[in-house]
Write a structure and sequence with these properties.
seven-stranded parallel beta sheet, 2 domains, Rossmann fold, 7 strands, about 220 residues, alpha/beta, Arc Repressor Mutant, subunit A, 10 helices
């Protein structure tokens, strides 16, 4: 059966939006309906919102866990068919069953968001609750009926020969940023970034950006799909 998951991104950071759009665009299972920076811009009458199956939301824009619950609760009441995948949730140690009763189908961390995002969104669409490995420790006190639905996303395969700096560059490059944008993001010279990218190609045995992306987002769980 062909999977077609339609996603609306709510993310205030330009580079994060660009990276997410890139990863969604290259995976046939998922397609983007639109993007906005914040809930202040959300218009529930637009085609972007109406056609979306999942809202992919940067939850760090909420001042508190209570405010997050209130906002999601209102959306769920008015649009019960929508699912919500959140990343960077404030106070994750306060997770409770109430959040998952409101259509929340995923909790991710931004520094893990590029690893298998399409697989995570697909699982959420199919009824699972997807949780980043680093968030899983906060779910142990949830009721068994919720824990049974959780799929913990394992860490992506890493290349031990990549230094921390090289991995930062590779991650941004695979996410769709240009060398100039990466240089601006990491406060480096563009030529330095280009040199790093050449080194990355050699280390991960890639011949183009798509292969770099494939290497960095290789999933330990892909064979399950």
């Amino acid at each position: 059966m062909k999977i077609d998951v339609r996603v609306l991104i709510i993310e205030r950071d330009y580079f994060s939006r660009r990276g997410l759009k890139f990863l969604i665009a290259i995976d046939p299972r998922v397609r983007l309906t639109g993007e906005i920076e914040s809930f202040d811009q959300l218009d529930t009458t637009t085609e972007d919102f109406v056609s979306a199956d999942i809202l992919l939301i940067n939850a760090s824009q909420f001042d508190s866990y209570e405010y997050l619950l209130k906002t999601i609760s209102t959306l769920h009441r008015d649009f019960p068919q929508k699912k919500f995948v959140l990343f960077d949730v404030p106070n994750p140690e306060r997770l409770d069953a109430d959040l998952f009763a409101l259509g929340v189908a995923g909790l991710l961390c931004k520094n893990e968001i590029r690893d298998g995002i399409a697989s995570a969104l697909t699982r959420a669409f199919q009824g699972q609750i997807v949780i980043s490995d680093s968030v899983a420790k906060f779910t142990t006190t949830l009721p068994a009926r919720i824990r049974d639905q959780i799929h913990v996303i394992p860490p992506g395969l890493r290349f031990g020969k990549l230094s921390k700096r090289l991995y930062q560059v590779a991650d941004l490059y695979a996410g769709g940023l240009t060398p100039v944008q990466i240089a601006d993001e990491l406060k480096l010279e563009p030529q330095t970034v280009r040199t790093y990218i050449k080194r990355i190609y050699a280390i991960v045995n890639a011949s183009d950006k798509w292969q770099v992306f494939q290497r960095l987002t290789a999933r330990q769980d892909e064979d399950e799909d």
